[in-house]
Design a protein that fits this description.
Rossmann fold; DNA-binding; homodimer; six-stranded mixed sheet; 352 residues; elongated; 12 strands; 17% strand; alpha/beta; six-stranded parallel sheet
DNA sequence: ATAATTTCCGTTACCGTGCACGGAATTCGA
DNA sequence: TCGAATTCCGTGCACGGTAACGGAAATTAT
């Protein structure tokens, strides 16, 4: 960057009349330096604009550090599988500065498995942690421990309200995404009259539920643009294709005038079989996240558009942020990073 | 990646009974090695799965290499300003492995300035080049020289048909983007009847014009979905706000039934003043690229949606690809990288 | 056969930092 | 005042790879 020749720790040493050992001690302020020497070194560092050589540092440190990624287990075709795939992308690129990444999974419906995963992470003594905080209380207990041990951590996907000592957060602006979703569903037209919201019943409590905020954004948009629109609710359960199909059948029998359908989580693919058995060229269908099954439905035209947040990118960015902090103690430019909401349609899905 | 302890060049040397000097010579095949030794070293490298330590290598090499970026001059608010901003993003991140990046600009309407820029690039003796090839013939002459000198190069934005020795290409699928554009303009509805295409007259020849392919994709979509739609053409000239305004005025006077407006280049902002003086809630307006002026119009609702290709990302990826190739001789996974076409609306423009 | 090349290879001094070790200088206690 | 405990600091090796240098071995010329 600076056109001046690169100045090294030795230059600082010579300039201050001290040795590089001492300079190194003040650079990593690990004590054993007199106030006078410390001040002198700092002064010269400022003056010459010293910037450490990353590569020499990484080389000398040798043994690579560990970053733990703590996310729900990634069943095939699930949202979290996408996130897990970001780990590999992160690992191969040069952005992680040769850091080691390890995946720790937990069952998103079992709080004990989360606790267990947390303690496994702590045992691994990571230099940094990426966590998807589905269980609010437990997450805070966990990050409290991390903070106590001076281990930096980054949230992805969502973020507990009350935690403010995280290094960063990468996620989607949920409320806004609901707003955008409504705009997509209605194609920007006013006075839409009927919409069905298909929802997945959550029996477990104490989880943070991103769909709440999304639904809020969605409903506010509808209130503004189509005030007299009736919003139907239909609850389905996962892993029950027949039940889902049947529920849709009977619901639409009762509400034959309803056209557009929306879901606020990543499982729009669950209702695709019914939709494809009952085609309607005027129906618009909007869902979230770029799961393979969702993309397929998009390509076939069953789903009109998807709003994607690319969890793999979130993981990659989270890991790189931690790597730069751990290795170069470089703070991220922003703490809260709201990621771009990608609108996917059948016409741009091939290139994303 | 491999759980095995990392093996170094010294391990190879010990295992082969040779010295690390020799191993280094075969690694960079710079000769002065007997066939027998060469084979032996290669064998052991395979066997142990040796992977060089990037950081040690970079440290030892010392002086950083140069990548030249050759793009049209970036007037404020222009498309190429976005591209130029990608250089800084690339420079600061760790992805470029400490490589030096230098910008070489040319006047996109002056072929001589392009020639001049090319020779300036060659004088700088770069280790790699990023080119935006607006002038087809001249670009081929230039890349021919690069090839002769063994300098790798990457295309962004567009790519000459006949060049196949480039390292990679990053750009938007132009035809498809026109298709997508049409879908956005019509909101997916069939039998739209009237559309105006505002175009910028190109007086210079021999330039590659991305809008041709876009328009083709657009018209094919319209032919499929709204066969009897009439497509109006209106030609404007840049840097002539009054003339543009006047032309729009008289055109719409003659065609009062036309609602939707589209432009295939990045200059949709040129017609925004007229549009805002003649508001129409049913009108849809679609353009390309995330210029600041376009984004503003999007926020105000004057422009319905923009299709963005993020030229800064193209530059960043191009530079990182070159860096990995130059420093680690790692080939990119794909040569032709069609980038995601981002659909921007007023509801997702804040977070991109 | 000996000298002159050429081919091939080992040695060695870096690159810039990190960090352990030991010693000098200072302060403290008696 | 003298030894002991601190405090502070310099030295030197290690990290893994690069490349110049010079010399031994093999080849060619005379």
């Amino acid at each position: 960057m600076a056109p001046t020749e690169k100045i090294t720790i030795n230059d600082i040493a010579r300039r201050t009349g001290l040795s590089k050992g001492t300079v190194d001690r003040v650079l990593h302020n690990r004590g054993e330096v007199s106030k006078k020497s410390y001040a002198k070194v700092m002064e010269v560092i400022q003056e010459l604009g010293y910037e450490p050589n990353v590569y020499a540092s990484l080389l000398a440190k040798g043994g690579s550090q560990l970053v733990a990624v703590l996310i729900p287990s990634h069943e095939p075709g699930s949202f979290w599988e996408l996130a897990a795939s970001g780990i590999e992308k992160a690992a191969e690129g040069p952005g992680t500065l040769g850091i080691r990444i390890e995946l720790f999974e937990y069952d998103q419906y079992d709080i004990d498995s989360f606790r267990d995963a947390c303690s496994r992470v702590l045992e691994a003594r990571p230099a940094g942690v990426v966590v998807a905080p589905l269980f609010q209380e437990e997450t805070l207990a966990f990050t409290g421990k991390l903070k106590g041990q001076g281990i930096p951590y980054v949230f992805i996907d969502s973020k507990p309200e009350s935690d403010d000592s995280n290094l960063a957060y990468f996620g989607m602006p949920l409320y806004k995404s609901g707003y955008l979703c409504a705009d997509q569903l209605t194609a920007g037209q006013e006075n839409v009259t009927n919409v069905l919201m298909v929802r997945v019943r959550r029996d477990r409590l104490q989880q943070s539920d991103p769909t709440i905020n999304r639904r809020a954004g969605f409903m506010d948009y509808m209130l503004e643009h189509s005030p007299e629109c009736t919003l139907g609710n239909l609850f389905i359960t996962p892993n029950d294709p027949n039940g889902t199909y049947f529920k849709l059948d009977s619901w639409f029998q009762e509400h034959p005038d309803v056209k557009h359908v929306v879901m606020f989580n990543s499982r729009i693919h669950l209702i695709v079989p019914w939709l494809e058995d009952h085609p309607d060229p005027e129906r618009r269908v909007v869902g979230f996240d770029n799961l393979a099954a969702n993309l397929d439905a998009l390509r076939r035209g069953t789903v009109t558009s998807l709003i994607a947040q690319h969890p793999d990118e979130q993981v990659r960015l989270a890991v790189e942020t931690l790597a730069e902090y751990i290795l170069l103690k470089k703070l991220p430019p922003r703490k809260d990073n709201f990621m771009h909401m990608d609108i996917l349609t059948r016409y741009n899905v091939e290139y994303y």
